[in-house]
Amino acid sequence: MKWVWLATALLLHCTEVRGTVGSRGGCQVQSSCVECVRMPGCAWCKQKDFLQSGEAAAQRCDTPEGLRRRNCSLENVMDPRPVRETVRDDEHRSGPGAVVQLRPQNLHLKLRVGVPQTFEVKFKRSEGYPIDLYYLMDFSYSMRDDLAKVKTLGRKILAALRNVTSTVRIGFGAFVDKPAMPFISTVESKLKHPCRDKKIPCQPSFSFKNVLPLTNDADEFERSVSQEKISSNLDNPESGLDAIMQATVCQKEIGWGKVTRILVYTSDDIFHTAGDGKLAGIYHPNDGQCHLNSEGIYDKSQLYDYPSVAHLSQVLSANNVQLIFAVTNAHLSRYKALSEALPLSVVGELKGDSSNVVQLISYAYGNLSSIILLEHLGAPPSLQVSYNSHCSDGVQTSGRRRGECSNVGINHQVNFTVTLTASVCLQRKETFVIKPQGSDEELHVTVETLCDCDCRDEEERSPYCSGNGTLSCGLCSCERGYEGQRCECPQEEYDDLVLTLDTSCRQANDTELCSGHGTCVCGQCVCQGHYTGDYCHCDPTSCSRYDNLICGGHGWCNCGVCDCDPEFTGVACQCSALTDQCLAEDGMVLCSGHGQCQCNQCHCDAGFYGEHCAKLTEPCQQYQACVECFSANELQEDGPEVCQDDCGSIRPTLIEEAQEMFCQTKHCLFQVEMDTRTGSILVSYTNQTTMNCPPWKCHRDMTLMVFLFTVSAVLLGGGTLVIIHRVNLKTSNKVMEEENKAQTPFWNSAMTKVSGSDLFLD
Ligand SMILES: *[C@@H]1O[C@H](CO)[C@@H](O)[C@H](O)[C@H]1NC(C)=O
Ligand SMILES: *[C@@H]1O[C@H](CO)[C@@H](O)[C@H](O)[C@H]1NC(C)=O
Ligand SMILES: *[C@@H]1O[C@H](CO)[C@@H](O)[C@H](O)[C@H]1NC(C)=O
Ligand SMILES: *[C@@H]1O[C@H](CO)[C@@H](O)[C@H](O)[C@H]1NC(C)=O
Ligand SMILES: *[C@@H]1O[C@H](CO)[C@@H](O)[C@H](O)[C@H]1NC(C)=O
Ligand SMILES: *[C@@H]1O[C@H](CO)[C@@H](O)[C@H](O)[C@H]1NC(C)=O
Ligand SMILES: *[C@@H]1O[C@H](CO)[C@@H](O)[C@H](O)[C@H]1NC(C)=O
């Protein structure tokens, strides 16, 4: 295990050191400054004389560190640095007048393509942010009891909200339904007085009516709402979405200011949506424009269909209008679903007679304004914007499409880290805004990409270019008739001269100039891309890989062949040249002399196994013939020669004393051992016959199995055994008695066997 760790550490270390090959490869295929700086992490050296003769222009593109290492002086490294300039960053301010919650307000960024840049956006929720509240009420017949209450409501709402901010204005609007069949009855008398009860005051139906533009005068609110009469329609759903649309887009008529804009929607029924207009023969989709006549009534309601929820959502967001739905219990779920689909909005339960509406508004306002959603609008598609949020309640999120914090109290600050990444060069400066939803405060972000080189070394007929070319970013572009790094080579017209120059660009019998990876200039190869060598025949990425690293990370790719570090070998330097792992602890020969040490690992010869090949696969079988031959012939002098075929160099020795021996032949017992220091094999035998040797004593494998079975049975199944033992007490006693008579107990023999010699046990 230790070895594996060491190897891993080495690999990591080497990857770091040799890592420059890869990244430089990415840079070194760019043969102009502009192409070079468009690659993330690449820089261009414009220094004159930076290149060796014959080096390609692309060698000027490298990592900034690579260029420094190659002695490009700092002032000559073209590596446009990302810039972040804060143009405007007013302090957070609260109180009446100019409130500042969002910082900064204007940023100017210059980005490198593919290199993320981050900046901080800080939002501090301020006290006393002015509020415009427009109260939108369902005027259908069932709401008649509520109308009386609402008249005095203006004063209460103003009082409640003035607790939160000193500047509050309030307005009032109403909705019933589009005055068209089948939403209303078109009977002449019903058109004028649609209410069921003929005695109560009633007004004709309308889709939306702006009763009172925003005002801070509570008396005016009471006066104008008092003059209003209830109305009625036929079907259950009302034209609520029409009303929300008009109240939102009619900025001038409603009088919305650049403040927190809240639309309170009260109703005791559901709403018509896009498509319902077809019932009345209305086919034009909603145009999202304001159409109020001089009386404040939406007079194009019979021309345009109800708006879709998506359309409404977009219009609300663009106009920073937040919605509070105050609806009766029966339809809460419908409105909750609607609220989900809209930007900042909440739903509260309205009592049957609207008595709790003030409390509801002040709670909902608190909830609404404690949610901060930071979004961007109008960012170019190639610009990726992501947000990390650090909220005041400790919640943190990262990599989101918008910044999001909830439970933000008054005077709490929340911070967002915004990350911008340009995937391609932008054609021109682009400006987009980042803003909290429902607020008119904006952060303007101007971005441009650093995709050009400002080398400031342009020189026509530069002496550096032999007076025959124009210098730019360290490169010569030669005039007609000249070529070479410094336009030093005249392009000869004569074929034979070109031929002689070409010969020195051609490798041995190659048909291609510069191996097809470069151009022959003045008799020298100028290599393209990452190719190197006199004939551009070397590809530093062509060497064998190991673990996906060129030369296994342990060598240098020298023209297609790995030059391995001293302690490594192999075509991809994948092998450690060390042999320590092939040697047993007390060993003197690699792999005990029975295998090859390759890549610091033993590959054992046939018949041997184990980490150091110190184990025999079938010792008894392998030496059986040898022992048999030897025991039959040992007394004769030529014994060893006779047994040459079976024994090879092995000389089994006879042991007089009877010992534990695990192998047997027809005539004797024997055992095979290995000296782990030298790897030599020692075979010894006795002249005892099998007659004295019970089977379990002689066959080692059998003994081991029986032993292991017994041990595990005792350990795991002890309890079971006890029970079985008791049940079979009589029987087993009998058996044991018989066994005792026959030989020594089975236990004893098994135990001594294993503890006596564990030659082949691992
Ligand atoms: C860089 O300059 C140093 C000192 O002048 C020199 O020893 C070294 O060989 C140079 N390296 C290269 C890559 O030219
Ligand atoms: C205003 O706030 C005070 C204390 O915070 C509270 O007692 C009072 O009832 C509030 N007024 C209204 C109209 O909600
Ligand atoms: C406001 O939030 C509280 C919990 O924070 C919730 O219980 C209450 O219903 C919410 N009120 C409205 C009108 O959304
Ligand atoms: C936001 O940043 C300010 C410092 O700029 C720090 O004092 C404040 O604790 C941060 N707030 C959060 C919620 O991280
Ligand atoms: C081009 O270079 C050659 C050789 O260096 C020089 O003799 C010649 O005057 C140069 N041409 C111009 C137009 O400068
Ligand atoms: C080049 O060609 C000659 C004869 O055609 C041959 O003997 C020689 O080995 C070739 N050299 C190489 C590098 O292929
Ligand atoms: C062989 O075994 C017998 C007893 O079984 C013993 O007397 C004799 O010495 C042994 N012979 C050799 C050569 O070990």
TrEMBL record:
Keyword Glycoprotein: yes
Annotated GO MF terms: integrin binding
InterPro entries from the UniProt entry: EGF_extracell (IPR013111), EGF_integrin_1 (IPR040622), EGF_integrin_2 (IPR057073), Integrin_beta_N (IPR033760), Integrin_bsu (IPR015812), Integrin_bsu_VWA (IPR002369), Integrin_dom_sf (IPR032695), Integrin_I-EGF_CS (IPR057243)
Cystine connections: C33-C42, C36-C72, C45-C61, C195-C202, C250-C290, C391-C405, C451-C455, C473-C514, C478-C487, C489-C505, C520-C525, C522-C551, C527-C536, C538-C543, C557-C562, C559-C591, C564-C573, C575-C582, C597-C602, C599-C643, C604-C613, C620-C629, C626-C693, C647-C668
SMART domains linked to this entry: INB, PSI
Subcellular location: Cell membrane
Top-level taxon in the UniProt lineage: Eukaryota
Keyword hit for DNA damage: no
SUPFAM superfamilies: EGF/Laminin (SSF57196), Integrin domains (SSF69179), Plexin repeat (SSF103575), vWA-like (SSF53300)
PROSITE patterns: I_EGF_1 (PS00243)
Keywords, alphabetical: Cell adhesion, Cell membrane, Disulfide bond, EGF-like domain, Glycoprotein, Integrin, Magnesium, Membrane, Repeat, Signal, Transmembrane, Transmembrane helix
Pfam families: EGF_2, EGF_integrin, I-EGF_1, Integrin_beta, PSI_integrin
Membrane-protein topology: Single-pass type I membrane protein
Region forming the signal peptide: 1-19
CC annotations in GO: cell surface; focal adhesion; integrin complex
One GO BP annotation of this record: cell-cell adhesion
Coiled-coil parts of chain: none
Residue stretches spanning the membrane: 702-724
PSI domain boundaries: 26-73
The Integrin beta subunit VWA domain, residue ranges: 32-453
Record-stated family: Belongs to the integrin beta chain family.
Protein name as it appears in the record: Integrin beta
